[in-house]
Amino acid sequence: MIYIIGHKNPDTDSICSAIALTYFLKEKSGWEVKPARAGDINPETKFVLEKFGFPEPELLENADGKQLVLVDHNEKEQIIDGSPKIIEVIDHHKINFSYPEPINFISEAVGSTATIIAEKFFSENMEIPDNIAGILLCSILSDTVIFKSPTTTEKDKKTAEKLNKKLNFDLEKFGKEIKQAGMDLDKPAKELILRDFKEFIFGAKKFGIGQIEIVGIEAFLKERKLEINTAMEQVKQEKGYDCLIFAATDILKEGSEFFIEGQEEKIEKIFNIKLKEKSAWIDGMMSRKKQIIPPLDEYFKS
Ligand SMILES: [Mn+2]
User: Fold this and answer.
1) What 8-state DSSP symbol labels residue 37?
2) pTM of this prediction?
3) Which of 182, 210, 233 delimits the end of a domain?
4) pLDDT at position 251, please?
5) CA 208 remoteness from chain centre
6) Residue ranges with CB less than 5 Å from ion ligand 1
7) Domain interval for residue 80
8) How far is the CA of 151 from the centre of ligand 1 (A)?
């Protein structure tokens, strides 16, 4: 038995490429293959598998004595623990790989491993079942962040269109749906504020700064703004912050809705914004580390 497996902490491309390549190899070569995973399935991948009717691949705890085809990774740190026999590697990441025997190593600088796997079907003129086309399409949309990531190539776009011929999704809309499923926003506002949260002392002031990634900021604000404002007041009080900041970062619109509780006038001045009902949009604001913390530190330390 040969296991086809993606990296530790698997994403949609890792899982779906393994499933699609398993189908390809079975059909084409009659190999005894099986998709596997090197960790828990994330919410985005769960959505994709359910949508196209695939079960979660088998979890491999250890690769000792197993034969593996690696997809979507090649670096040692990302390979499942143990000493497997590696048969083949198919990947789109930078190469940092060595192996004591000759093996097939397929590497292409494209936006997703799924793009490379889809090309295998195309070049063999092999029919792609709708559900396989579906998961490959999802992997491309996911890994390229709906073609917005700088890693996106023309080939990814063309491959996605080809896969979508029979499926007929609105790619932009469907891509957002996939990303949204992965963001797991269907949680209480307080949980979203505290999900990726850090505390700082700037000068004599205590700050709490949370950030989440979302797509579709408008719809999110329409539905959740009041609830977030209330939760902001609560968190600030409970934890005794001088200022609480929550950045809801839209990875497609490339900016953040900034929620502020405390020190409002100073924050408005620092970031050159005008708060409306406790929040404001800041174009291009993506990074807490690089864009939020330095100006706060600079202003309050003096
Ligand atoms: Mn990938």
Assistant:
1) E
2) 0.83
3) 182
4) 87
5) 25
6) 13, 72, 112-113, 143
7) 2-182
8) 10
